[in-house]
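During the no-cost extension, the postdoctoral fellow (Dr. R.K.) reprocessed legacy sequence entries with the updated structure-token encoder. One reprocessed record is reproduced below for audit purposes.
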Amino acid sequence: MKLTSLVCFVMIFVGTAFSQEINQRLLPKYSTEALETMIASNPDQYAMLVYALDNALYIANYSSAKGGEFESIVLDPYELPTFLELNLEIKDQNQYFKIDGVDKLLVVKSKSVLTYEMTKK
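Re-encoded structure tokens follow.
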């Protein structure tokens, strides 16, 4: 009986410890269970997602005279949200969106760019 109680206590403690590591800003897209699994099985991917929350997006100048067709997006170029707040995903290549109403592009960095930046810090 004591052994069973001890095992249950340890499992609850370990589960709580993993839950405390989860960045709450990822929860709109990922479940707690999915994030716990990611932390355990692919911590580099989890670290990249956490890093991406603050570093995946930037604004670049755009000139229609230079051409280029981009999907448009509506956002305030002076208040940059996270990629999750825009319902975007981090992909294998950079993504570009023309910001409506201004000559600016929203750039979403790729997985490889974000991973490279993380190694430089």
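DSSP finds four helices and four strands in the chain. The radius of gyration is 19 Å. The remaining legacy entries will be reprocessed before the final report is submitted.
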